[in-house]
Amino acid sequence: MPKRPNWQTTCEGFVCKVCWNNFSATDAAMKPRVVPQCGHSYCLGCLEEIAKRSGTQPPTTRCPFCQRSTDILPENFAINYSLLDVMNSMNEVKDRQRPAKTKKGEGILVQCFENQNHEADLYCTSCKEGYCEKCYMRAHEKSRVMQQHRAVKMSDKPEVIPMCPNHPNREASFQCIVPRCLWKVGCSECRKLHHKDHEVVNLLRQIKTSSAEMKECHKLLQEKKKTLTSHLDDITKSLKSFDSSDTISHHEQLITEQFGQNEDEPTLKKYRIFVFYEKKQLECQKKDISFQIRQIEILEKKLLKKWLQKVNFQEPELILEARKNLRKEIEKRKVFYKLEEYIFDPDMSDRPYRPIQPKSVY
Question: Which residues form the B box-type domain (predicted)?
Answer without folding.
Answer: 112-154
